[in-house]
């Protein structure tokens, strides 16, 4: 056997190469003046896939995560809040997921599903203020770079240059947009700036799925 070649002729490096996460789908939803928001399970999800919910609330309040989801980050701004939750799916997964609030408010969420990913591996620094910038981070390992942006009153989410929109949802007083770079190599990611039409009190954060 030639060094570096395994049975069947495949290089050992090819067998050991990590699998790049694949986005299966995404859903989004918003509610105004209510005590919850519900996002549907993305189509095509199978047991073992990773679900990530990015949630924006146009207030400083602690929401209740959907059943079975673990908190990845609680990101607090002067006038708003963003949460990131994750879970690995199992057989018999419900059709939707609900974020609950202690009192009525304006909120929005995006749920994205990945296959071949295990967790949100890194979360950057939460930036609060226009323009809609998610601050650069030093990505420790290759994977999928995501940037979530919240706004109070914005319309027409436009992803940062070089990134693809995963999903967005907004009402009159709160919205969220999620963008993706897949694959994303390890290293400094650079600031990512999105835009909303007519938005105010904007905020953003980068995070990595691997």
Can you give a write-up of this model?
With 210 residues, the chain is an all-beta fold. It has one domain. Helices cover 2% and strands 56% of the residues. The chain is built from 1 helix and 17 strands. Strands 6, 7, 10, 12, 13 and 17 form a 6-stranded antiparallel sheet that branches. The protein has a 5-stranded antiparallel sheet with strand order 1-5-2-4-3, with no helix packed on it. Strands 8-15 form a two-stranded antiparallel ribbon. Strand 12 and strand 13 (174-184) form a beta hairpin. The longest helix has 5 residues, at 12-16. The chain is globular and about 40 Å long.
Largest sheet: 6 strands, antiparallel
Dominant shape: globular
Instruction: Tell me the total number of β-strands.
Output: 17
- Helical coverage, percent range: under 10%
Q: For the terminal residues, how far apart are their CA atoms?
A: 33 Å
Concise structural overview:
This protein is mainly β and 210 residues long.
Secondary structure elements and their pairing?
Layout: H1 12-16, E1 22-40, E2 50-57, E3 70-76, E4 81-88, E5 96-115, E6 120-123, E7 127-128, E8 133-134, E9 138-139, E10 143-151, E11 155-158, E12 164-171, E13 174-184, E14 187-188, E15 192-193, E16 195-197, E17 203-209
Antiparallel strand pairs: 1-5, 2-4, 2-5, 3-4, 6-17, 7-17, 8-15, 9-14, 10-13, 10-17, 11-16, 12-13
